[in-house]
Amino acid sequence: MTALGEFLAKRSVNKSMVARRTGLSKARINELSLNTSSHLRAEELYLIAKAIDADPCEVLNKLYGHLQLVSEEDQ
């Protein structure tokens, strides 16, 4: 399961409802939720956040807040 899948599961989100509201296919929602090699596009994240009444920035931070900049010492 992906970070998006875990986020949606914690919020008890119905993926069929998200697909209907966003215009994304249910297959695409499932791929983004289950396939760790899938890549979430910014417009998909925005639509999903709006469909579940979440702040897109909150969703972005939940999914990608673990990322760190490379320090100059590491270069």
From TrEMBL:
One of its GO terms (molecular function) is DNA binding. InterPro entries: Cro/C1-type_HTH, Lambda_DNA-bd_dom_sf. Keywords: DNA-binding. Residues 4-60 form the HTH cro/C1-type domain. Signal peptide: none annotated. It comes from the Bacteria. The keyword DNA-binding applies. Pfam families: HTH_26. The keyword DNA-binding applies. This is DNA-binding protein. It comes from Sphingobacterium gobiense. The lineage of its organism: Bacteria, Pseudomonadati, Bacteroidota, Sphingobacteriia, Sphingobacteriales.
